[in-house]
Amino acid sequence: MAGRPLAELQVAGMVCLRELIRFSRNRIRVATSLAQPLLFLFVLGTGLSQPSTAASSTVDFRTFIFPGVLAMTVLFPAFFSAMTLVWDRQEGFLREMLVAPVRRSSVIVGKCLGGSAVALAQGTVMLALAPLVHVPYSPGLLLVLAELALTAFLACALGLFVASRLDDIESFQALIQLLILPIFFLSGALFPLTKLPAWLGSLTRINPLTYAVDAMRRTILDAIGASPATIRSLSPGVTWGSVRLSAPVELAIVALLGVALLMAAIRQFSRVD
Amino acid sequence: MSDGFSAASTAASVAAISARDLVKSYGSVEAVKGVSFDVDSGETFGLLGPNGAGKTTTISMLCTMTIPTGGSASVAGFDVVAQPAEVRRQIGLVFQASTVDDYLTAMQNLRFHAVLYSLPKKGLSDRLRQVLDLVGLWDRRASRVRTFSGGMKRRLEIARGLLHSPRVLFLDEPTVGLDPQTRNRIWEYVDELKQREAVTIFLTTHYMDEAEHCDRIAIIDGGRLVVMDTPAALKAAVGRDRIELHTDDDDAAVSRLAERFGLAATSAGGTVTTQVANGERVVPQLCAGLGLAVYSVNVIRPSLDDVFMAHTGRAIRDSGM
Fold this sequence. Notes:
The structure holds two protein chains of two kinds. Chain A has twelve helices and two strands, in the order αααααααααααββα. Chain A has helices at residues 5-25, 27-32, 35-48, 61-91, 93-98, 104-127, 140-163, 169-185, 198-205, 208-223, 228-234, 247-269, and strands at residues 239-240, 243-244. In chain A, a hairpin with a 2-residue loop joins strand 1 (239-240) and strand 2. Chain A is globular, with a radius of gyration of 19 Å. Chain A starts with a helix and ends with a helix. The mean pLDDT of chain A is 88. By secondary structure, chain B is of the alpha/beta class. Chain B is built from eleven helices and 14 strands. At the A-B interface, helix 1 and helix 5 of A face helix 3 and helix 4 of B.
């Protein structure tokens, strides 16, 4: 089957296109997937930004959690897209793809592309609300968009890895339920990673989302012109021992983890019974 | 595939499907226990048997979805284990359960398929129309599949299975779960496509009447082929009508059936049973010629059970559905 990369690329493109068509057809999915992040941002964010609990006097708490909420906005649709793999298996459409003379990797890559695109579209809507949390539009937000794309890719790859061998929706939902809140809470989405107890600190370091949230927060704080001291206290960067990782390194980690998870998903998905 | 030209010309002369001692076991359970058969090009071949007989496992191995644990098989001249990608190119599949995407339209489902099989853009529109016309769904091409009935979905799957002009079309229980009227329509379409498309059809079913549509059928039970022949030959051999009589004197009826009509009959539990080729015509003669009081007569047409019983010596275990 070597020597037909173009055809395989077209297959991945078609699988991706199908995800987009299916997403656009499901209006409820479009409408509801933004509800939860909005709740976090404006209800939880406003409630916790009361003077007594304010994380910082110089930066609005909602501005602080905005990168975390952005990550959450791509996390849900990315996992949901991955769930369609299990859905396809359960409903039968997956067999149409599995018996075709195509590589299974093309199916997974297409799913990942489609899921990332859907997630990024939702993330973009959320990012467009930036001025509401005191983040005016600026070229720096384009960098946030790129970081968000990487985050969506990572989440999709993780979701597909979980979905690759499952054949019922309930198991997938149970596993994702188990994963999603720890991943979100341990990412520093809602609190700075400075001065955490050691056990909590190490947990945040093994969480892939931590690197994405920290990089986005640095970019956003930078975009609103926060002082270096503020940035250091609110978004100190992840430390490995005594090494403080820079934002590009954090993003490289996100990308590499995404690729590794995607390859693991392909590997599992390609196992023939 | 280094020389596609000669591959194509030799493929035309070999059997469309050839299976030799095909075995599939799951752990200690042997689902298929050494099955051998050949299907000629252009033939419609039916694999008939009860649920759990190994029909789907056999089809699954021929379609490269399941790797055999023993024996070998080739489809369109390609080995199912060594050349799965080539086999997949040559076959179309219609599964028992629906594998169309409900969210997409009929046309989108077919276009997706066209990309999966790398069909050239040139001529694709004509081919799409051709296959949709064949199954009577051209007018519904822009409708979402979720609005389709079960029969329409099955027809769309048949159209899709044909889109890439496969050498062999596999139909796994193509009418299961459909009402009798829809089943008949599906068969009309299948008979029609036999006329229009140069394709070998391999199908499985547990309906005896559906075997009528096949050139040849093989009966499978417990993972083994028990008999393989044309439907006419199978019927001539075993498919006679069974006549059940309730009479005044069963023993006398048995002996008189033998003396006067030359029919072998048995008596059990107050019922005399015999087999004849044309039951409805024979019954009046029997009643008139027996010289006994006949209380009731029951003519039973040959069924899968009869054919099955004749070859396995017992009743079909699962004649349900």
